[in-house]
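Let's do one together. I've listed all components of the complex below, 1430 residues spread over three lines.
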Amino acid sequence: MSDAPATKARTAMASITFTPSGETIEVPLGTSLLDAVILCELDVPAPCAGQGRCGRCRVRVRAGDVERRSNAGLVSAEILDGWAVACQTYVTGSIEVEVPERRRETVRPHGHAIAEPESLPLTCDWRQDPAVRTFELDIEPPSLADNTSDFDRLRRALAQQHGIEEVRAELPMLRRLGKDLRMANWKVSVTLEMRDWVYDAYLPPRLIRIYPGAFRHASMGVAVDLGTTSVVAYLLDFATGRVVDSASAYNKQIACGDDVISRIIYAKRKRGLERLQHLAVETINDLLDELQKRNGIELYEIHEVTVAGNTTMTHLLLGLDPQYLRAEPYIPTISASPVLEAGELGLRANILAHVHVMPSVGSYVGGDITAGVISSGMFATDKLTLFIDIGTNGEMVLGTKDWLLSCACSAGPAFEGGGVGDGMRASPGAIEDVFIADDTLEPTFRTVDDAPAVGICGSGLIDLLGELFVTGLVDKSGHLDRSAPTDRVRVHDGVPEYVVCWAGEGGADHDIALTESDITGLIRAKAAIYAGFEVLCRSVGVDLADVEEILIGGAFGQYINIEKAIRIGLLPDQPVERFKFLGNTSAQGAYAALLCVNIRHDVLDVAAKMTYLELSADNSFMDEYTSALFLPHTDLSGFPSVLAALQKRGNGSDAPRATT
Amino acid sequence: MTAVEIPVEKWSGAVREVTLGSSYGGGTRTSTVTVGGETSLPFLGFEGALPHRPALAVEVVDMKPADWSPELVATWGDDLSDPANWAARAVEEGADLIALKLRSCHPDFGDRSATEARATVDRVLAAVGVPLIVYGPGTADKDNEVLVAVAEATKGEQLALGLCEEKNYRTIVAAALGNGHLVIAQTPIDVNLAKQLNILISDMRLPLERVLMDPNTGALGYGLEYTYSVMERLRLAALMGDAMTQQPMICTIGEESWRQKEGRAATDVPEAWGELAERGVAWEVTTAMTLLESGADILVLRHPGSVGVLREALDDLTKGA
Amino acid sequence: MALTGLQIYKLLPKTNCKECGFPTCLAFAMKLAQKGTELDKCPYVDDEAKTALDAASAPPIKLVAIGAGERAFEIGNEIVLFRHEKTFYHQPGLVVRVKSDDPQLAEVAARVASYEVERVGMKLRLDGLAVEHAGGDAAAYAAAVAATRAAAPGLPLVLMSGDAAALDAALSGGAAADRPLVHAAAAANWQAMADVAKKHGCPLAIRAEAGDLAGLVDLSENVRGAGIEDLVLDPGTAGLAGDLVAFTQLRRLALKKGARALGFPLFADAGAPTWQAELARATQAIAKYAGVIIIDHLEPAAVYALLTLRQNVYTDPQKPIQVEPKLYEVGSAGPDSPVLITTNFSLTYFSVSGEVEGAGVPAWLLVADSDGQSVLTAWAAGKFDAEKIAKTVKDSGIESRIDHKKLVLPGHVAGLSGEVEEELPGWQIMVGPRDAVDIPNYLKNVWGA
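Okay, and this is what the predicted structure of the assembly comes out as:
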């Protein structure tokens, strides 16, 4: 599709010289500048993956002619100056192109990410059944009389000294076995992976590493939450079962698209998939480096890795073509991944360390959700439980230990600050908490790290919308009351907006405001998620009010203020004690599976058992969605606490500032 | 003999009673029309009250329509050129109400002023004694301007003003609120959107006894089944006690039926379609009857022949109620 | 009563063996609850569960076939009172009544048989003829039926006579092969009628006086006792209101009270002195529960309206709501009118066409087949891409109807414009607004400019 220009029998070539890197490349005429940039592995952002929608892949043509299909987002002075939108600009002859230095995003995802991830599911008995163990062995040296082979000798010692009857080893390990044993003078420590992820089949423990002498090393594992936006890694000590450190970073694939659909489109480009895979590995490797350095361990001491991610992310990590995820009937290449070694994937851990990718349920319910169901413990409870992971895709699971039903609804990036004019991720300076006074209509707010305000993050957006609503500044359909007695409500460029922070007050060079179109976006996002709850419940004939526990997981979940989320109709109006925050359930599930053998059974069980409800095939979803496109909801009777709050504040069923 | 126990639904809700037109307090109507009040599904008198029969309105346009079906042009003749004559004739043909469309105020179709619109409304009010529905030209800005002027000039007449939509409801609701009129709340074939607009209007403190809802009509063959089911769902919700769905429903049957090919094409159509004169009326009557069965309270029609057929059908449907 | 997915799931083996073709037992159970699959697909379900599930899924209204051969039609098997609750399954047969002594009987029969009108790609036809015994003896009636069959071979029939001997003569004369509906057994003659219907293996209508539902129950018990299984209930006619009440009560009794005696399709006599009054009656019968509808007038305009209504009402509301993908003309579009393209999700279509019409600018509206998805959803699922757009343009024949080559894309897929240009050489691709409400402004200020 995107490389079509290059394939239409135009074989004439042209050269492109990039500055400041000085690199030169020959490409067929008709190649887009973005494709050329990718071929040279230069760093140009492409959040929309080259669809010409975002206008951010700007480069400057310094010499030569090009064909411009679109100049999205550029003003005429810039065009005269040579600036061009790379994905919409095509090579017609030899040219020189300047690729601007990127201002790197240095901020990390929200600092609280190092939350205690040690709430293991009750069924997790890792002391009884650890996934990785190290044993010290004193092996009888061979002699002419005792000429058993080295490996059988090691096996015999393991059985005699530790009761481990069987062990297996792969060729790379055997190739060095003879030397390792003799160098260590037959006194060694062996690290074994006790249980592989093979369903319903017994495989003996596997030899990962031999250390000379008594064990003075670390035996570590890493659990990775590979998110579309941010990636978190926990470093686990197999000796104690504890998480000793964690690190997080933005997914480097963001340069190739903000959301999964954009990345799938990007993967279609020439070498696009290769680049995405590379960026995923590189993101994880950077975290491994950081953890390794900070904790003074060696890479070979990382004996096992688990990765939880949505289906698109795991496909991209493994270099699997994601195209069929996107097109009906939405089929992934695999749900459970084969056993991989860190070496073959290019991860910087012990090259024989296994990398386990958490199995997914469907194209839009991935291993991150399987992990979430594991870490939340809902797979083992009698209580009717709803598990929610609110992010770009709102995924949710309803069920008990007997059955699990999941769905995904596309909420869009609004809750992560995307698609909102002054939205941002939860990094320093993001407004995360807002209150608006009834009488003055003036806001007070708090920012992440108390830094000067530069934008509004997801939790701040929920707060702000909730406040605008209960103060009557926004009506139930999301329209601002332009006659409100405050200069904070104004019409700017034809769009009504509410100013939260004037330019002079914060760290931004402009007024930070929420516009009516931002509000529409937020209402759509929350409506998609709430409609998901309703459809999930109705499809099995239960009522939302029958749900005994609502578990909120996902990286974003922990920052939500429940009361305010209920106020805008994002969460059901249930007693607060029914809600529980679980933190980053994806990482925690990956951690539990890393640590504990029996959890690995549960993971496979859950993924096989979970039923996936495809909402695009469900007519009632549209109906529920429309019903939820209202503040808090068209069916007010489902929101008694909001109704009471409105009535108390006198904004229930009137519009004191109604216009004429 | 076997005794059959007839299942009777016990509904807890009722459709609101809404009265159009007034003969006192500024009102000059010689008759008024009250619709709504049902406590049962349409025409099932055995399980609830059906205090008012659905009303028939005839559409009158303030300028000779250039794009109407030849069958309608032939039927109304010269009356199309004068809204007052047209309205008077419509009443003779059996209309309970007149639905006056101020199309000439549309920027593209004459852009007449609010003052001229007021004069037209006055003339029609003088020509007939029945209540009036007044539709603006259908563009938000001009609707606001024209309908506010008309509302102020006709204070107390209890007109129904349309269309009130989610994007422009505030001005029209305020005009109705201040001048004793009604509004017609139109939403695009969706239960939730209909309910949402009623909530927004009610939040402005216009009593719901002054709101009609128009769930947006799809003509026979052009989405009729969506309208049909949306109306059934709205009526069921109303009877089950959902206060924000209890508005009487008005359907613009004539406009939708006659703009389709079936209502316009006299030649070059399959023989199986029959002649335009019969086909146009058949399309309008079938659309109307179907929506009566799903809860329509006011039908806005275009052809006098349809008025006659539906009047008879309503006589039959409301016999003994 | 119908079971929910969860109730059915509890009866299944819960092994997630996938042998039924569904990924999990719950997915299978949910599909069963929607009546979208058969229980037999599960190889491991036990007998106890089978019995429970069969009982829950027995149709409350019996499926009855009328006629034989290609034009036979089935009625009944309905499970809801309102189509939005699920769908109406078997559309009523529309049957034209002729009198046995009508000199034009054969001509009318031929016209009924050949009436056909096409709508949304479907051929709509009348379903049968009712031959009413009017004067003459059994032999005369049998001759009239034979003449009807000769004029309209294969067309399902309703034989209307109170005289069992006349019916027997007609059926014995060959009509039995067509499996006509015999109308009607009443309190006075039910035994003889049941005998005739049984002898010839035909479905039988039973008829009570209007308002006498108890009489209908008695008749039902009697004729079923006599061995007739395929019944149609005729509750008599009592004007529009009375008929509506009777039909509603019968449907409710069958569905909600499980009244087996009344669990059969309904017979509506919509006949009236004028075609207009008859149209009103038949409209009500289609909307409200009839299985067979009798009309007397073969007025093509009314028949076309009724067949269209039947198609509308019996559309499955659970299916994605879509419109026919094709070229639509909004207003009197000409060679210089704009061409806009969108998807065939009905609400997308309705809002776009509504706004285009409201703009007062005649236009061509090209509707692409996106399986009923909206523009953004279809784009995300790869169903509204450059290739599809180009194919839609090429297949529509729009090129021969316009003198320009400009195509307006929905604003949401602005990014496709380059690719569409590739696919449609010589076309100028323009980007329209994202939201339908902005179309009038676009057409007036951008398109024209």
